[in-house]
Amino acid sequence: MDMRLTRRRLLLGAAAAGATLAVRPAFAAAAAGDTIKIGILHSLSGTMAISETTLKDVMLMLIAEQNKKGGVLGKQLEPVVVDPASDWPTFAEKARELLSVDKVSAVFGCWTSASRKSVLPVFEELDGLLFYPVQYEGQESSRNIIYTGAAPNQQAIPAVDYLMNDVGTKRWVLEGTDYVYPRTTNQILQAYLKLKGVADEDIMVNYTPFSFSDWQTEVGKIKAFGSAGKKTAVVSTINGDANVPFYKELGNQGIKATDIPVMAFSVGEEELAGLDTKPLVGHLAAWNYFESVDAPANKRFIRDWHSYIKNDKRVTNDPMEAHYIGFNAWVKAVEAAGTTKVDPVLDALIGVAVPNLSGGFATVMPNHHITKPVFIGEIQGDGQFDIVKALPEVVGDEWSDYLPASKDLISDWRKPLSCGNFNVVTDKCGGAAATGT
Amino acid sequence: MRKLVAFLVLVACIAISGVTQADESRLGGMINALQGSGEFDFAGRAAAVRALVASGDPHTAKILNELENGQLYADPDSNDIYLQGGTDDNPTYADPVTGADETDQVDPDSMVKVKINNDVRSVIDDAMNQLTLMSPDHDARLKAAQAMLTQADPRNLALIDKAIAAERSADVLRALKAAQAVILLNTNATYAQKDAAIATIAAQGDQDAIGILTEAMANAPAELKPDIRQHIDAINRSLQLWGIGQNVWYGISLGSVLLLAAIGLAITFGVMGVINMAHGEMVMLGAYSTYVVQNLIGSYAPGLSDYSLIAAVPVAFLFTGLVGVAIERGLIRWLYGRPLETLLATWGLSLILQQLVRTLFGASNVLVSPPSWMSGSFELGQMQITWNRLVIVIFALVIFAILQLVLNRTPLGLQMRAVTQNRRMASAMGIRTPFVDAMTFGLGSGIAGMAGVALSQIDNVSPNLGQNYIIDSFMVVVFGGVGNLWGTLVGALTLGIANKFLEPYAGAVLGKILILVFIILFIQRRPRGLFALKGRAAEQ
Q1: Which of B44, B339, B388, B409 has the maximum number of C-beta atoms within 10 A of its C-beta?
Q2: What pTM, to 2 d.p., does this model score?
Q3: What is the interface size between A and B, counted as CB pairs within 8 Å?
């Protein structure tokens, strides 16, 4: 506990020192408090550090670049980095601290749905603004959160469509880690598959604990399920640490992508970094961005990233692009609103369009989700993905149309409706209590 | 639309091949057709691959290989295809047939990779298999024959017949005959042929055979159906028996991982009584030692990199052993007899070590590549055994045996037992107890480090590696009986096998919970674990 505090203070100190150094030449006369504070709420220790540390770095890079361009509204930006240590209650505690002690204008953070669910009430109570950069299960729309990651219809559904139409899959294994994102996503996918006429006995759902490492039985089961004479594919919502042992076991048991392809929703360039990908060539992932996207904006981003992090081997991934979009959208909205106050910025955010890294534009929609293109990629021997299918931009759909509980709900945060869960059948706003699952 | 494009490409190919031109330019045209009508025209690409194979040109194998390795690039303006060479920053482009450098003819920035997807990949693999079915290399033939079996394409029947006539090796022949049988079953073969085919497939006796037979059921002649059903039932029965064997193996293999993780703790906690929460981090340090050793060998003696794992074993033992001695001397010796403080101090230490590694190596996973002799699997009857698991099982048992020898047959082991059983008496007999304490703790830590070498092969090498094993390790040691190595062995294997038998029925999550509940109940009945120490040693 002590260590965590010390580390945090150190980081804070370093960040503050860096900011003052940067400020001094340009605004020698400006008072020390005359900066805009941005909160960065990503785990730097514990299990999620593996994924979230990179997002902290990319935010620092984006803020530094913006400061070089003169900051926002003539003021420099000051990052406030905190470490919630992969612990969900700590996320809420740190979010409260950022909003009420540091008085940050916006927060960029969270990875797992559990951490987002934990900070959501804090952001709604203290009227903060959170940019959430990771693909998630949907079934939520908060006034105070901008979801820059993919909703299920921007990742899971197109991926299943690809498996069904382009690969010809007839039998489905839904394999996931046991927590809210895989469970909700698989619920939606099961409903969707049944709608498409897939029989119950052709769907196998299986869950494993976090950090699961002994995949022998599960992979054996997948192999047996796949040898029924119909084309079988695995849809994987396995999260974090458990992926590496899963893929190692797949490779060792000789399951090739041409026989049983695995389509993953949480495996990107960063997760493949600890793996020998040669036995995995051809396994799939669905994202809204891949490092291999061929676009000038992406080339520039990768170059900037490599020079900022001083390591040419560091990869870029989808949530990094989400922060890139979220940050630029925030800057644009603040400049349009002429203030960093949350309410005017929230109003200004809707309809803001900023370039994404694949050559298109991302627009913030009234439901606080953004438009995103969908890419299906195949793993290559060098740890990168080759895009094998590119679909045009789609709007994130927060309330799934395939679940009975949410099919009549929509979200629209424009005035005068301003409702996150408006029921189009009863014509009533469900109130805050119905957010989330 | 796609089909139309594919058709046009095919027509183009045929048209090109029909014209009497120099062979080379005809081949060039067929290669250029690989680009199809654009980046995502995989159907066109697959058709172009087929056309290339059908041409029988001697360059085919080389070109397909380059395509599969992602070395072919297309010029988007002319759709001409080039072979990329050189480095990532400074690529060169050459004619794929002649190999002549033509970098100056293209704009390197606009070149597009000729991508393949799984469909094209399987077409290429099939083509390669057709080419290797007659290869002199036994393994290549076997792989090709097995691929023929899974794919069961009636167009390959003639090729398979030819290969059967020429084949000498029994296992390749078996695969070929099975492939032949599957194809016959799905075509308009005679009744007798189908009957024989069913027997051949049933003789395989595996899950695939059930799939093939179930599929064949649908369009089999009515009089064959009961026969097929009988075969399916028989295979199912035998598979059930094999399934038990497979589960036992999975259990032993999980047990060996538990044993590896726990055996070091059996020394530090079991023998010395130190509640060492930093034990998992010793495992993690061992895994990172493997990473460092592998990288050093990779850069200074790349020829030996297949053996870097073996070299890492002593390095990891010495390194983590030294770290263990340092921890004992610097921290734990001040805390003997105060279990709560030890627990908190070692817990803090584990966080420090994790963050230290995170700062040094980064928060992401690092890559420890598996050596070739630990990749893949082999079949034992209907059981599949992966090499890495087998090696780990053997490794765990060897470590256990060595540890038993050290404890029971060496002077150091004698002193260790003496000190832990009665410190003051041992001291009175002239044993340097502080030295023995440090050595014992170092030994336990060193063994945890060796476990890390093995675990780097199946798990993430990340700063969190150790945390995933600490609970399991304590569970095994407490269950097996504190202070008894045999207890740790039996405990680890029992828990592993029980877990694997529960998993198919209860699922991985519930299975783990059930195991924990079982251990709690067991400890209620037998507080000292499976193998309780008796006599004076148990009373302290």
Answers
A1: B44
A2: 0.82
A3: 163
